[in-house]
User: Fold this.
Amino acid sequence: MSEFSEPWQPSTAGSVVLRWSSHPRCVALARMELRKALADWGLSALEDSAVLILSELLSNASLHARVSPEQVIETRYFRSSGGLRIEVHDGSPVRPQRRVPDPEASDGRGLLLVGALADEWGVADRAGPGKVVWASLSVPLVRPVERGCP
Assistant:
């Protein structure tokens, strides 16, 4: 099985759907594809947070979903009028759980980061086996500089 089965295509509908194996290198490739989509959609202001959220969600699916080798993990990126929604679909019914990490541990903070960076996130059932873990980001409002008047 190849690492990903669909090349990225700019989408006039504002969505990108890609399928990945659980190979660790796929996380970097998925980040690259998300960066392309964000640039295409004029949402580069969300890049840092979006890429970190995607990395955490896709890494969790790759490590913890326990999918069989023939199953794939699917990422979906959706542009909206106010921002972006990232979804990671996998075939495992096991839902991710936030945990309090050991201060000395090198892992266990992913969902805490997702919660801190995303406007909202969650887990839902999907058609067929498994689940979808999603996160939404809004474009930050840029306010004009207020000037005092004498």
Q: What stands out?
A: The beta strands are 15-20, 73-80, 83-90, 120-125, 131-138.
